[in-house]
Specification:
mainly beta; OB fold (Dihydrolipoamide Acetyltransferase, E2P); about 10% helix; 1 helix
Length: about 190
């Protein structure tokens, strides 16, 4: 076997095993919704999701699955097996897709009133932590972004000031009035 053939096989073997290694760690995602039911016996939670995706989630029970996320996301959230507030509007932190989603924690967004705004990002001012969007009726709306804001991005959930958002991104913002400011509680950057 020549050196070039051996090198080719080594490179091929490396790329063959890279997907296996990278899929070993689960990325945490977030979405918003209302808790419809909690079945402690079946270890499931059902949500009416804001993005209208399937609302069935499994509870995380003694999982050994390695998770990739900023631990600050769960600092003010409640573990799935301890959450009991049916009817609460929440941000759910989970991994997996479709009917295979597993919830790790839920964060109650409070009693509201909450608002939902879909639109296109006009600008995000990092120093003032202000997100300005043009909604679907062409109104310009601004939201305060705080350290507690959670965003779902194309690469998973991010907290506070750590997410990236670009002009032109389509978003759905769940907000509440906090100290006189329209404050973003959840931003879904994946909305099309």
């Amino acid at each position: 076997m020549t050196k070039s053939t051996l090198s080719t096989w080594i490179i091929y073997a490396f790329f063959l095993f890279v997907p296996v290694a990278s899929s070993a760690q689960e990325v945490i995602h977030a979405l918003a919704g209302v808790v419809i039911s909690i079945n402690q016996k079946a270890k499931t939670i059902f949500l009416s999701t804001d993005d209208e995706s399937d609302g069935n989630f499994k509870d995380l029970v003694a999982s050994k699955t390695p998770l990739k996320f900023d631990k600050k996301l769960t600092a003010d959230a409640i573990a799935a097996d301890a959450f009991t507030e049916v009817g609460a509007h929440v941000v759910v932190l989970y991994y997996g897709y479709h009917e295979m989603r597993t919830v790790i924690a839920l964060r109650n967004m409070g009693s509201g009133p909450l608002t939902w705004t879909d639109g296109k990002v006009l600008k995000y001012e990092g120093k003032s932590h202000t997100l300005t969007i043009q909604d679907t009726t062409s109104n310009v709306v601004s939201f305060k972004v705080t350290e507690s804001t959670v965003a779902e991005t194309p690469v998973g959930a991010a907290k506070g000031f750590k997410f990236q958002i670009d002009k032109g991104n389509h978003v759905r913002v769940t907000a509440a009035n906090v100290n006189g400011d329209s404050t973003a509680l959840f931003i879904n950057v994946n909305v099309m």
